[in-house]
Amino acid sequence: MIETFKAFQVNKQDDNFSAEVTSLTINDLPDAEVLIEVHYSSVNYKDGLASLPKSTIVKQYPFIPGIDLAGVVVDSKDERYKVGDEVIATSYEIGVTHYGGYSQYARIPSKWIVPLPEELSLKEAMFFGTAGFTAALSINRLENSGIMPDKGKVLVTGATGGVGSTAVAMLHKLGYQVVASTGKQSAEQFLKEIGASEVISREDVYEEKVKPLDKQLWSAAIDPVGGQMLASVLSKISYGGSVAVSGLTGGTSVPTAVFPFILRGVNLLGIDSVYCPMEERQAVWNRIAGDMKPNGFMEKMATEIKLDELPIALKTIFEGRAQGRMIVNLINS
Ligand SMILES: NC(=O)c1ccc[n+]([C@@H]2O[C@H](COP(=O)([O-])OP(=O)(O)OC[C@H]3O[C@@H](n4cnc5c(N)ncnc54)[C@H](OP(=O)(O)O)[C@@H]3O)[C@@H](O)[C@H]2O)c1
């Protein structure tokens, strides 16, 4: 019988905001079919947003953030999941309106759960988490649009971030020549170690003015940055190429023209990990565990933290200073 367990909880009463590790009981968790002992979670940009005093993501307090979790089933009202099964739960309402992964136990609706692929450990699954899943989904969609390694170089923007760094490593594993764009001058060696063949600055992609059409430099791009960066990327994609856009760290408004689309047949692919259909979700997780799984990725790209280190980790990612992926260890917290 589980008496109490630890969770990282955000709370707001009037103007008083708190974010701290607290002790909860199972009865504090929302109702859902599957009770999971959470072994690992991870830190994503959205978790940084959810943990701000003026969060636009969290609507009700107290709340447990954490859009990712992986662990072992300890109770289940759905016969598809048995006690002892290893599972992944990311996306949907997890860490947004439904208590999330920064908790040693979580109750999750069974329709949001993915069985852990055999070739992945729980810790590896959370290394990838939503960021890695989004990178993999972006690559999958690029390939469905006809992109292949022999079509030319692929650009990754925001390359040191979660989506960016996992995209660099996965594309490299699949045989693509990867150009990594970053705002961090010090990250060149890191990006080359994880698979970039070329490292360029943000200004090399976008500086002040976006031309309607520019030199054709890349066959495709994975863009978690958005804003003017995306507009500039579109103007530099080769004829028939594709751009997979997933994020907005660089802004929400994209000052582009129709020319890349109507004169070069460029495809703009919208990537949504949250409501990605379950069939495609499982297929993408199987690719993450299979042909996309980079070599030596944990050693090169992962930092492991405990629950009480979350306030610093969440601030780091929100300020765009994170490099690689942060895994939260719930078992030893
Ligand atoms: N659509 C989806 O389903 C989905 C899923 C996951 C994430 N996302 C979104 O994707 C974005 C990235 O998420 P993440 O978890 O990878 O975040 P992250 O780890 O913070 O990475 C974002 C990276 O963007 C770059 N960046 C930050 N501020 C910038 C600015 N002002 N201008 C240009 N580049 C900037 C930085 O990389 P460099 O320093 O290397 O340039 C930063 O590391 C977020 O907007 C997130 O909400 C969307």
Helix-strand blueprint:
Blueprint: E1 5-13, E2 16-24, E3 34-42, H1 45-50, E4 68-76, E5 86-90, E6 105-108, E7 113-115, H2 122-144, E8 154-156, H3 162-173, E9 178-182, H4 188-194, E10 198-201, H5 202-205, E11 218-223, H6 227-235, E12 237-245, H7 259-264, E13 267-270, H8 278-289, H9 297-301, E14 302-305, H10 310-318, E15 325-329
Parallel strand pairs: 8-9, 8-11, 9-10, 11-12, 12-13, 14-15
Antiparallel strand pairs: 1-2, 3-4, 3-6, 3-15, 4-5, 5-7
Helix pairs in contact: 2-3, 2-8
The chain binds NADP nicotinamide-adenine-dinucleotide phosphate (NAP).
Structure commentary:
The protein is an alpha/beta fold and 333 residues long. The chain has two domains: 5-116 and 297-329, Quinone Oxidoreductase, Chain A, domain 1 (Alpha-Beta Complex); 130-270, NAD(P)-binding Rossmann-like Domain (Rossmann fold, 3-Layer(aba) Sandwich), CATH 3.40.50. The protein contains ten helices and 15 strands. The strands form three sheets. Strands 3, 4, 5, 6, 7, 14 and 15 form a seven-stranded mixed beta sheet that branches. A hairpin with a 2-residue loop joins strand 1 and strand 2. Helix 2 packs across helix 8. Bound molecules: NADP nicotinamide-adenine-dinucleotide phosphate. The site of NADP nicotinamide-adenine-dinucleotide phosphate has 32 residues, from helix 1, helix 2 and helix 3. The site of NADP nicotinamide-adenine-dinucleotide phosphate (NAP) has 32 residues, from helix 1, helix 2 and helix 3.
